[in-house]
Design goal:
Chain lengths: ~230, ~210
Amino acid sequence: MSQKNLMLNGLWKNNPALVQLLGLCPLLAVSTSVVNALGLGLATVAVLLLSNTCVSLIRNAVPHTVRLPLFVMIIACAVTCIELLMQAFAYELFQVLGIFLPLIASNCVILSRADTFAARNSLGAALLDGLFMGLGFACVLVLLAGLRELAGTGALFANMDLLFGPGAADWKKVFLDDYQPFLLALLPPGAFFFTGLLMAVKNLIDAQMTRRRVVDKVPPVKGAKRVRVTGAAS
Amino acid sequence: MPWKDIAYKSVLLTLLAVCTTTVIALIYHFTQHDIAVETRRAQEKILLQIIPRAWHDNSMLDDTIAAGPHSAGLGLRDEKSIYLARQRGEVVAVIIPVIAPDGYAGDIDLLVGVARDGTIAGVRALRHSETPGLGDQIDIDKSEWVLGFTGRSLGSPTVAGWAVQRDGGAFDQFTGATITPRAVVGAVLRALQFANDNWATLFGPDDVTAEGAG
C-alpha cells in the first residue's frame, strides 16, 4: 500500500473511530473537554507507534496461534511505559485522564492494527499506519470534544495549562457569556449524539464526493470506449 | 513434532514476558524519583491551598495522625492521614479527610481544614465523579462555591443551619444541583464534629482554646 493510501486510510477512509467504530469507550468518556481529548489522543498515538513497531519487528518469529497473547503483552507494556512517563513528566494530565490512561491497553484500535496491519507489513509501513491511525483517532476525539465543550459550556480550550504548562492557563476562549450549561452535551448521551452527527457528516461528504466523481468520469469513460473501438477498427 | 512446536512457543512467550518486564522495570527505575516528587508536590499543593504557608512552619505531609474506617463520623473506607500544621511546635490547624458517601455519583473525597479557634480554614474536593457542569462546581477549578465554608464553625451557623438553603440551611445550593451540595455540607459538618470530639488528640493537651460549641 502506498504511503498516501496509508495516510488517507487512517485519517479518513478507514478512520478507526468513525468507520471502524473501534475504541469508542475512551472516545465517548474522555471527550468532555479539548484538553482531555488531546491528552488521551496523544497517548494513544504514542502507544500505537510503539506497539506497531514492536509487532512489526518480531512478525516473522511469531507463530499464528500465539500471536494474540504476544501482541497483548507488547501493548500492555507500551501502555504501562507511557503511563509511567506521563506520571513523571505530566502529572496533572495523568490525574485528569485517570483510569482511561491504563485502559488504552484495552482500546481495540491498537490490537486491531497490530493484528491486521503491523503483523503483515514492514517496519516503515507499520510505523506510518500506527501514526495515521492514531492521528485519525485523535482528530475525531479532539473534534468531538470541541463540539461537546462548546455546546456544553459555551467556551473552548479550558484548563489547557494541564497539557501545555502555566503559560496556557489563559487560552480559554469564552464564546457565549452567561451561557446556561447545556448538560446533555456533556453527559454520555451527548457523546453518542455528537459521534452520530460526525459520522453522518462524514458519510454526507463521502456521498457528495462519489457523486462528483461519477459525474466527472462518466463522459470520459464513454469517450474512451469509443476511442478504443475506433482504435480496434483501424 | 508437536513438542518442538510447543517448546518454541513457550520459549517465545517467556522471552517476550522477560523483555517487556525488563523494559517496564527500567522505565520504572528511572521515573520512580520524578513520580514520587510529583505526587508529593501535588499533595502538598492542595494542603497549602487550605492552610497557606504563612500560617505554619512545618511540613504538613510529614506531620500526620492516622485516620481510617475507625475514625467515627469521617466515613473513610481505608487508612488516611490527618495533616497537622504547626507554628513553633504548636498545632495551629489540622486538615481532616472526610468522605461524603451520598453524592449524586458515588463518594466525594474531601479535605477539611480546621483552625485552632474552631473555624474552617478551607475545604477542597479531592476526588468525585459528580455531573460535569452541575455537581462538579464543588471543584475549586470549576467554581468558588467551596470557599463559602471558610470561617464557618460549629456555632456559626448553628447545627440546624448546616444545610443547603432548600433544606432551610445557610449554604447555597447551585443551580440545578441540590444533592451534591447537600452531601458536601453534611460531610464538612461531620469533619467539624470530629475535630470537636477529638480536640485534645488533634491540637495537643492544651485545649483551653477549644470552643465547646455544638
